Amino acid sequence: MAINATEKPLGKVFTPDYQLSIPSFQRAYIWKPENILQLISDLEEACKSPETPYFLGSLILVREGDTSFSVIDGQQRLVSLSIIIAALRDLEHDEEWMRLLDALIVEPGDKLRGITSQPRLTLRERDAAFFREYVQEGNLEALFDMNDEDCSSNAQRNIIANTKQAYDALAQLDEEERHRFASYLVNSVTLVIVTTDDLDGAHRIFDVMNMRGLPLTPSDVFKARAMSGLPAAAVDAYASRWDDIMDPLGDDATRVEEFFRYLHLILTHKPATGKLIEDFLSDVLNQYLAGHSIEAFIDGVLAPYAMAWRILERPSDTVLPDDVRGRLEALNDYRHHEWKAVAMWALTHSFRNLGDPEVSFFAQRGSHSARDCGRTADPPLGSHDRQRLGEILCALEQVAGVDMLNRRSAIDRRGHTAAAIRDLDKGFPVRLVRGLSVSAADRAGALIRLHGELQGDPDLVRLLLVRANEQRAGARIPRPRALAVVPIMPLDIASAASFSSWTADLHDYWMYRLGNMVLMQGKEGQIDRLTEYGRRRDRVLLRADSCRFPLTKQIADFNECTPAMLEYRQKETIRLLAEYWDIRYDESHADLTSKPPEQLSGDAGSRQTRGSQRVTIKQVVAAGLLIPGETLVWERPRKGERWLVTVTQEGRFRLEDGSEYASPTAAARAAGGRSAGLDVWKRTSNGEKLSDIWKAYRLRTR
């Protein structure tokens, strides 16, 4: 078995030298939005130091021909990198940059040399055509307009969700930042390519690389350096002390690294650069080494902040005041963790003995009383400290929620954190702390997101509904282990008598908005086969745990699902969320939830980007990119089928039978039973694809 291993930048991997394919026995693409967003975030940080390469791990390949390889390990990263490049290409204005980015994921072909155009990476058979048509070949507009019913596998749903999230994240960057990001991605992101000609050998290599060997963690490196600065007589005692502090944090290297990254930010007010070990040694530890005060670092810095980290990881197990514990539990619901640095600072500065080994802030198993926790603080938290801690945590969750809705980049979030800690260190009142305040544009942007479609991100919708229900209940609600988000309306209403009065337009409009969503005990998809409203409602309300949530229980009061019902629920849910995050009113105390999204858009200013939000016919007509009266055609020559639509003055598509639809998807579904409308309609005048018109609108309004 011949084995070869070489390190190469991504720009040398996505070339004709490597024609990659995913074997049928491999698992599907399973990365979720948080995975691809974390990768983008890490790369954003890394490209701040363009001279430092970013190692993305190894690929294990089996040679099938001169340039053909099967991917044994690395599929998730390769698919995600292709998605990121496709999003960068779609956001690009410069034709040369578009061509170069396109060539990374699709071999452009060369007729003179007999090279055919083909994707660099071919997925499993079930998903290959989907990935090629919509991602690799640049048909993102059609992908953005898709619903779950257009997918035949979970991998395709993951592709859609991750592409939207990657596009939205990269759309936050300006053109210069995207060019810098793309250049770093191609030239400085490296992979070790391990190739063999034997499949069994490849699996053995995979086992060895993933199951053996434990690399040093940052904690190991910092401990070794710290011990080198201690007198010989103190080394054993403080080595044991270090272990007592760090062992409870667990052996998850990623989480421990995250702890030290936030500790570095707290102590230096500087976000990490991607070189954690180098930065922490030079910016933090070396100062204590030079001052011969390593003991002070371990006892006065590492110990209290490590205890704060443990509290943040398991707030429900602590004996903190109920309001503090509740806020920390709520903060743990957010997928981004930059808030932890500010919360660590707040806890450490509020509890004067947080690092004392004789004091525990955790209840003993089976007990929730402070007397079971060793020697307690005296007092553990003063009234003034408690008020300030509560204000910080409240403001912190407001910023976390608004940043989540505005899809703020990791760089922006870390900037907020650094600014907040800098001002807190200066003793500023919480209301004056930069990084813990929400601007008028931020408020408007968050409300716009709440008004719109929220397809493809069930975790976000679940969090929003939990928050709205808890605001309505006035308290935290115990959650069942399995808690699903389910739509009140079915995806297909064609055969449902209870939805016979609904038009396709109205159904399409409400399907993915908050007003149509409820929380239900159980797993996703459990009522998909039920099409009648009454049966869906009764199944949702069957479980007592579902009825804990007031907005779920509310549907018991409606015997019919009507547009008015969903509009009422939509307004109420947005109002509750706006009250929860304290973004309902502006500086003049005007109620922002009463403003339509179009008016809020003006308030949001130029910071807002359209992202992957669906574009409507009405918007495109208003922009002059479609002309009322012109016709579009969808042809299926092999089946002898042809449909025409006319663009109306009101921004709708009218089929030849006179029926009208507010979206290309609804018109395509009504005409030929296919819902990828942007992918099929073309101008009769010049054959221009509707997806190209939609892309032109998105670029114009970004």
Q: Report mean pLDDT, rounded to a whole number.
A: 86
Count of individual helical segments: 28
Overall spatial form: globular
Q: What portion of the residues fall into strands of 2 or more residues?
A: 5-15%
Separation of the first and last Cα atoms: 53 Å
Structural class: alpha+beta
Characterize the structure shown.
By secondary structure, the chain is α+β, with helices and mostly antiparallel strands. 49% of the residues lie in helices and 10% in strands. The chain is built from 28 helices and 15 strands. Helix 12 (253-268) packs across helix 13, helix 16 (339-350) runs antiparallel to helix 17 (383-405) and helix 16 (339-350) runs parallel beside helix 18 (410-425). The longest helix has 23 residues, at 383-405.
Short description:
The chain is α+β, with helices and mostly antiparallel strands.
Short descriptors:
702 residues, alpha+beta, 6-stranded mixed β-sheet, 5-stranded antiparallel β-sheet, 28 helices, globular
Any chance you could write out the topology, listing elements then pairs?
Elements: E1 3-9, H1 10-13, E2 19-21, H2 33-46, E3 54-63, E4 68-73, H3 75-91, H4 95-105, E5 106-107, E6 118-119, E7 121-122, H5 125-136, H6 140-144, H7 154-171, H8 175-188, E8 189-196, H9 199-211, H10 218-227, H11 232-246, H12 253-268, H13 276-290, H14 294-313, H15 322-331, H16 339-350, H17 383-405, H18 410-425, H19 440-451, H20 458-473, E9 483-487, H21 504-510, E10 517-521, H22 533-541, H23 550-553, H24 563-580, H25 597-604, H26 617-622, E11 631-636, E12 641-647, E13 653-655, E14 660-661, H27 664-672, E15 682-683, H28 690-701
Parallel strand pairs: 2-4, 2-7, 3-8
Antiparallel strand pairs: 1-8, 3-4, 5-6, 9-10, 11-12, 11-15, 12-13, 13-14
